[in-house]
Amino acid sequence: MGSVAGYTEWRTKAAAAPERAEADEWRAKPESSVYDAKLLRQHTEELTRARDAGNALELVPLLREALYRHLGELADPRLYSQTPLGTKHLVESFYEEALACIEYLADPDQTGLSLEFTLAGFRRAAHIFGRSALLLSGGATLGFFHLGVVKALSEQGLLPNVLSGASMGALIACGTGVRTDEELDELFADPRVIRTDALKPLPPKRAASDRAVYDHARLEEVVAHNCGDYTFEEAHARTGRTVSISVSPTRERQKPRVLCHYTTPNVLMNSAAVASASIPGAFPGAMLHQRDPSGERIPYMSTERWIDGSLKGDLPMRRLSRLHNVNHFIVSQVNPHVAPVRRVTGKRGIVPVVSGVILSSVRAQVTHQLELARDFTKRTPLYSTFDVVHSLADQPYGGDIDIHPRLRPTALLRAMSNISHDELLKHIREGERATWPLLARIRDQTCVSRALDAAIRRLSSDRGAMRSASYPQPSK
User: Fold this and answer.
1) Are residues 162 and 300 in the same domain?
2) Together in a domain, 288 and 154
3) pTM beyond 0.85
4) Annotated catalytic sites, by residue?
5) What are the tens digits of pLDDT across the range 175-228?
């Protein structure tokens, strides 16, 4: 399906594939080893009866129990392994009924419950069930693939509000996080406005003095063009998106950071993205900047310098869970030392399983040896090197849903080169095509959290309107 123009055409061709009949038969059969089909049908019918009867107080615990009982097992990737068009019809019916129940409960006029009680209940439910995040890995210019992932998700209304990026992923997360949905549509309608010339080689003498290959000022210029000039707090207020950017310290006793509107509200996002993209050897360590109360750009932690966020936190899942209540991770992974391995081990069949066991064993051994080397070299100049390499080997590189490119040797050779706009369009299209087969799974596994968030926004808006209406109006 490499020649299709968009998701609609891709889905039409997938529906016409020769194996469609077998897949339809599998989808129509409710039984599965992954879940209890009888119990799932029973819970779906109970929800329907309570909703049709208009019994909100009975429906709330029924819905809570059903979601608790089934959401974990329904996230099993085997339920989406037969066809990219969707999963079992019974599973889809359960999701549809759960969403109908949320829609019903979010309308106090129908339920008879107070708006304040309803809003508090939805906020509690959203906190309990968590939310999804899109994590964008490092990978130098291979990371333009992330743009296609963002485009595919955005066009289907599936782009999570929580975004995280490291290194090149930070540049894409930053550029996405400062734009509204309408502005993203405009960007993808004409991607030629995106600058791709951030890599400007330094003259030999300057490179030797800076201990870097590329011009840091050019990187700042390009990032400012692509990402604007917003603080984390300003961008969040403008778009509603929560962007987290990983940065690694240059000083041994400093810890890696995840910057966001909670932790560093006044830090400028473009400076955070530049720091996260400052690959050691390619760029010097970068200083973070913030906006002071008068609007001036000033240093943030002026004595510290920061480098490539993927060295210590390519996918900072623990910190995202703590900061933003994230428990479902969609990962776009393009790191050349990771993506090919994840692509092989993520497939079905005996060969991927055996490969996964072997690679996991090798990784465990390498990580252990690096840990020993790091411990033995403490208080020596080699410690920082082994610490970084150990971090690269030991950190997680996958999530609940992983999206990978097909890394070709020619692309790897150009990973540290500026790309043309034709190459940019190819990267975007490749990201889209890698995402399309996963959209049905992403839609199902994020539908509950998206519905809860939508209900909270609507109820909060209604409460604000009621409060405004209750204020006495000034006399004319």
Assistant:
1) yes
2) yes
3) yes
4) 167, 308
5) 999 999 999 999 999 999 999 999 999 999 999 998 899 999 999 999 999 999
